């Protein structure tokens, strides 16, 4: 089994840097993908109330032979459930659906203008009561993080955003490092949209790796966590096979320059 890399969050908790995202997976497909991922060596599973598969994710975790303490489980409060009391209720519902004893990381899924402050304060309450091991945010670009500082008493442990060589948010990465917030990339593989890019293929050929493996390794070497989504066993294994090589400094610089501000999800700044 490849050696898993971990990061230590700002509250001292360890989190795997590479995980499985389960967006747009339902019923047995979601369950099977998590079982395959856990068998492969993944120890971070990322879901959300919005994905409507928390029950299946919980089933797979209990069905697996892996000790619960060794699995890092993330879920998120849905946009329609934001607000102080609503968030507390949403957390209880997610915990009930997952049917596990605790959640490792709970995130604000989107920075909804009218509710994001109260939602964050609810997350702080959940952490202070020991009901969740770590709290964080998703889709928070620099202006959102600056605003959050004006009322937060806990610094987010994680900021999960769209991030890839083709959407290289270098300034956000630097800000998160300064604030000791772990940046995490969703849709790191751009939903396959750039896998035939000749620049990427050239580097993949050089290292005898696939384009997806190059992208994931690039993120790891920047200290960025990634949660690539796949329900395909071969791809699940391929995405995890990134711990046996290192991209050179010069090639890292080349990949950094792939940026074209390519988004496959809406721009969070539209909500600011």
TrEMBL record:
Alphabetized InterPro entries for the sequence: AKR, Aldo/ket_reductase_CS, NAD(P)_OxRdtase_dom_sf, NADP_OxRdtase_dom
Q: Where do the NADP-dependent oxidoreductase domain residues begin and end? A: 27-259
Pfam families per the UniProt record, alphabetical: Aldo_ket_red (PF00248)
> What is the protein's species of origin?
Emticicia oligotrophica (strain DSM 17448 / CIP 109782 / MTCC 6937 / GPTSA100-15)
Q: Which UniProt keywords apply?
A: NADP, Oxidoreductase
Name the chain's protein.
Aldo/keto reductase
Top-level taxonomic group: Bacteria
* Entry similarity comment: Belongs to the aldo/keto reductase family.
Which CDD domains does the annotation name?
Answer: AKR_AKR1-5-like (cd19071)
